[in-house]
Design brief:
32% of the residues lie in helices and 18% in strands. By secondary structure, the protein is α+β, with helices and mostly antiparallel strands. Helix 2 packs antiparallel against helix 13, helix 5 crosses helix 7 and helix 9 packs across helix 10. It starts with 7 loop residues before the first strand and ends with a helix. The relative contact order is 0.19. The N terminus is likely disordered.
């Protein structure tokens, strides 16, 4: 009998999916969560990083090199054009020195830079080896190749579950498929199901969108609809939810393998007595954060946020998960941005360049920091930063997270400069047209890379 409410493997910490329009071991019991006190060396939870107050803005020393003078002059020029509602901070991680700061303490909408908080919380709470599971359970019995009873396709919040062809194009070939579940059912000798195949999306709430649409479906931003059971990135067709669409696709795959079954148009929660018949696993979280951050995938971000809410908060909602993210960055780093979602689509989210750079500094060269850095796209090369600072000193030298809403254009990350210095930066431009701001941020990140 399967009694787990959450299909997830929590490991002890030891081109791409849909881009939003805004940014160019299974345990049948309770999930096994790593103890926070047992975090290994290098984990920022064990490191006890210095408090945010250690990074004092406006108190930087006088420039000591031509490179620093040139960086400050270039930054100042670009920030004047960015306008009075913008802020920036550039910090030398090797020398522990502020290189440039302008209004760095002002909280602004982070847009998808919010995913830096989400990724950090995922690595601290779940770790890079965590996998999410999609399973088929059954009530009834098998006799002579016939399953007498119902089947339940239960979602564990895996955003990569889908069709092999879809995953090849949109998920870099990652992600479990309905074909794998069907193969396991066939190996049990099931050829026909007398009952119905139900979709079980009970792990999360049934809100299909985020805060920007008051939780109504937001396909332009998410590229699908939210559910703990999605197929092909939350795809739907008329009269089907994301979950019932997934069950329909499973049944179509079964029929393609000469198995007789019928999908219900309604979802249902698998009974406690249901038996596990088949199960597939997502890629590890280290891979899924790359699938999230490189193209800035909002659906991934909010499904992971709901997952944090289920495991560590008050349930499978965006607000519950956002509270977990807030608690995590407050307890581990002493930082207090306003985090209302995991994607950054809400204009009521607030982060400052100082808070973002403080995070980047504190996790630098930790296991969490290494995972975060590996999840980010490379400037001038791929993802949402492919066209930023192309053919400049920044190309291939910097990794960064974009954040874009109407008239909000942000960029934050790391550069290894020509002068062989490691630098953290955050640029928050609020007000100018996005295309103007992108040009300014290209200039600024190129200046950082030349340092």
């Amino acid at each position: 009998m399967l009694v787990a409410a959450v299909a997830i493997t929590l490991a002890v910490f030891g081109s791409l999916s849909h881009t939003s329009r805004n940014d160019s071991s299974f345990d049948a019991g309770a999930p096994m969560v790593a103890s926070r006190s047992s975090a290994p060396p290098g984990n920022s939870a064990a490191k006890q990083p210095p408090p945010a107050a250690d990074l004092v803005t406006g108190a930087r020393r006088a420039p000591v090199s031509r490179a620093e003078v040139a960086l400050q002059a270039s930054m100042a020029k670009s920030m004047r054009q960015a306008g009075p509602n913008s802020g920036a901070l550039v910090y030398d991680l090797d020398d522990r020195t502020e290189l440039f700061g302008l209004r760095p303490e002002v909280g602004l909408p982070p847009a998808s830079v919010e995913k830096l908080w989400t990724t950090t919380a995922l690595m601290l709470r779940l770790g890079p080896n965590t996998r999410l599971h999609t399973s088929v359970l059954g009530t009834g019995s098998l006799r002579n190749g016939v399953w007498h009873g119902n089947l339940y396709l239960r979602g564990g919040g895996d955003p990569t579950f889908g069709d092999p062809s879809f995953n090849h194009v949109w998920e870099q070939g990652y992600g479990p498929t309905a074909n794998q579940l069907v193969a396991q059912l066939q190996s049990r000798g099931i050829k026909r199901v007398t009952g119905l195949v139900f979709a079980d999306e009970s792990l999360f709430d049934r809100r299909r969108g985020g805060l920007m649409t008051n939780y109504a479906p937001d396909v332009p931003d998410f590229g699908g609809q939210l559910s703990s059971l999605t197929y092909d990135h939350g795809s739907v067709v008329p009269h089907y939810s994301p979950a019932t669409f997934a069950a329909r696709e499973l049944v179509l795959t079964m029929r393609g393998s000469h198995m007789s079954a019928k999908a219900s148009t309604h979802d249902a929660t698998a009974p406690q007595r249901a038996r596990l018949l088949a199960i597939v696993s997502s890629p590890p979280m280290s891979v899924m954060t790359r699938l999230m951050d490189v193209p800035s995938d909002d659906l991934f971000a909010e499904l992971f946020t709901k997952q944090l809410g289920v495991l560590f908060g008050r349930g499978g909602s965006i607000s519950a998960g956002a509270h977990v993210i807030s608690q995590t960055v407050a307890s581990d780093f002493g930082l207090h941005p306003t985090i209302l979602d995991g994607s950054g689509l809400s204009r009521n989210d607030r982060s400052s360049p100082l808070e973002v750079v403080d995070l980047l500094r504190d996790i630098w060269h930790t296991s969490v920091g290494n995972e975060l850095q590996a999840s980010l796209p490379t400037v001038g090369v791929n993802g949402t930063v492919q066209s930023i600072a192309a053919k400049t000193a920044a190309q291939g030298r910097c990794v960064a997270k974009t954040g874009t809403l109407d008239n909000v254009t942000n960029l934050a990350g790391y550069c290894h400069s020509r002068g062989h210095q490691d630098v953290a930066f955050a640029f928050f431009i609020d007000g100018p047209e996005n295309w103007t701001s992108l040009a300014l941020e290209s200039e600024m990140v190129a200046a950082v890379a030349r340092y």
